């Protein structure tokens, strides 16, 4: 796996480059105040008041896409993905850098953009085709394929406003993917339509991957789709390309970015005399962090350390709960007094958890320190919690294994139900 910001070395690719993005910057001007007249505008100008601030959305973005690539662009919300697509599509222009492509480019950035509800489905197909740059004769040649894929033949002469939302989505998506372009740009459109239509889309993309002349650029938050369809991918973070190359490295890094809790001013740092949530003067430090890779297979054993600083208490215990952040609930809990700690002070505890029984998912390990009064008569009395890890200092990891399912928590290797018999009543 590559380090952040380091390009992955690729084998020489002799296929022609159909899209080149070279050192592209994009800046938006956000208004901060508005002059109410010419006099105020002149005063602002003399004082050097611009009336806007600049927001750098993309900075020094460079990559190439070859003919026949199924190329993924991923990143968290606000990273600059959609802005990049609009630059490629010619909707925006960069402040610096150059974007060039070869062939017919078909952008499909938002479902249904350019559709008119007062026109029929048939008229909207021709309208959308014209907006994409196709002539009427070219749309004539594509029309039957579009209608067949959308499965809307008997509805094409009805007005679009009478379509259900699902029918509109199917028609819009069919126009995009059946348009006879050389480069197809898709932005967050894989989860469209019902289950049967999604299976049809899946079959279509499987066939597209086999076509050496068809190039697809896909923006998605679905890392399963990136690993399944894409040949290469880039990860954008804060307007920069941080990984360019291997799709699995990109998908795994994206998963880690999403596992990280959002920064909280009250959680991560000590402020004045206040301690982060879950800590105190008695326990100023408690955190769990990964030792092995945070993206694992079910055959792996996930290793992590727990670091704590507690000098005041003796008779310390540690409890660990594994939260299932995707499905909700607690997948496992050690109990409040199972793990007895040997020493106080500043210590590090080495831990591991086998993953063979779990399906794919994202998990958070929450640790608490607990005490039992040594002088207490009842040795079975419950322990008392004195510290716990908040979202910022808990340990997160993900399981990604092709053998696993996505829905249930336990894998088929971890639990199987056997039919013991059947009888008629």
TrEMBL record:
User: Can you tell which superkingdom this protein's organism belongs to?
Assistant: Bacteria
Span-the-membrane segments of this chain are none
**Residues forming coiled coils:** none
**What InterPro entries does the record tag this protein with?**
AAA+_ATPase, ABC_transporter-like_ATP-bd, ABC_transporter-like_CS, ABC_transpr_TagH-like, Bact_Polysacc_Export_ATP-bd, P-loop_NTPase
One Pfam family from the record? ABC_tran
> In this protein, which residues make up the domain named ABC transporter?
38-263
Q: Which PROSITE patterns does this entry report, sorted A to Z? A: ABC_TRANSPORTER_1, ABC_TRANSPORTER_2
Instruction: List GO terms (cellular component aspect).
Output: membrane
Q: Name one GO molecular function term.
A: ATP hydrolysis activity
ATP-binding listed as a keyword: yes
PANTHER family, per database record: TEICHOIC ACIDS EXPORT ATP-BINDING PROTEIN TAGH (PTHR46743)
The protein's name: ABC transporter, ATP binding protein, putative Teichoic acid exporter
The species this protein was found in: Bifidobacterium mellis
């Amino acid at each position: 796996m590559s380090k952040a910001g380091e390009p992955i070395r690729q084998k020489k690719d002799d296929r022609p480059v159909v899209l080149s993005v070279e050192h592209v910057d994009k800046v938006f001007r956000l208004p901060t105040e508005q002059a109410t007249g010419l006099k105020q505008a002149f005063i602002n100008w003399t004082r050097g008041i611009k009336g806007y601030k600049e927001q750098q959305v993309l900075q020094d973005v460079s990559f190439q896409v070859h003919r026949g690539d199924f190329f993924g662009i991923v990143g968290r919300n606000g990273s600059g993905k959609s802005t990049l697509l609009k630059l490629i599509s010619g909707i925006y222009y960069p402040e610096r850098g150059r974007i060039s492509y070869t062939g017919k480019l078909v952008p499909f950035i938002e479902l249904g953009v350019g559709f008119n509800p007062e026109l029929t489905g048939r008229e909207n197909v021709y309208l959308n085709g014209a907006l994409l740059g196709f002539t009427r004769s070219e749309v004539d040649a594509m029309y039957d394929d579009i209608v067949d894929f959308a499965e809307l033949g008997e509805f094409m002469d009805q007005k679009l406003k009478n379509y259900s939302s699902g029918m509109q989505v199917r028609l819009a998506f069919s126009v995009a993917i059946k348009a006879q372009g050389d480069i197809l740009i898709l932005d967050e459109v894989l989860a469209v339509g019902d289950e049967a239509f999604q299976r049809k889309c899946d079959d279509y993309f499987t066939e597209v991957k086999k076509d050496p002349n068809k190039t697809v650029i896909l923006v998605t938050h679905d890392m399963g789709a990136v690993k399944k369809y894409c040949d290469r991918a880039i990860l954008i973070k804060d307007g920069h390309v941080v990984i360019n190359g291997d799709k699995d490295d990109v998908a795994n890094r994206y998963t880690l970015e999403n596992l990280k809790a959002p920064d909280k001013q009250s959680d991560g740092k000590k402020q004045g005399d206040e301690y982060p949530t879950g800590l105190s003067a008695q326990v100023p430090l408690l955190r769990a962090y990964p030792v092995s890779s945070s993206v694992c297979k079910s055959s792996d054993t996930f290793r992590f350390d727990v670091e704590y600083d507690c000098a005041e208490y003796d008779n310390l215990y540690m409890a660990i709960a594994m939260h299932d952040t995707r499905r909700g609930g607690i997948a496992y809990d050690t109990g409040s007094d199972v793990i007895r700690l040997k020493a106080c002070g500043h210590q590090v505890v080495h831990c591991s958890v086998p993953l063979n029984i779990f399906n794919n998912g994202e998990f958070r390990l929450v640790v608490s320190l607990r005490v039992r009064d040594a002088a207490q008569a009842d040795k079975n009395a419950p322990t008392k919690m004195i510290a716990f890890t908040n979202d910022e200092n808990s340990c997160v990891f993900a399981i990604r294994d092709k053998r696993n399912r996505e829905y249930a928590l336990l894998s088929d290797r971890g639990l199987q139900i056997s039919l013991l018999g059947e009888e008629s009543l």
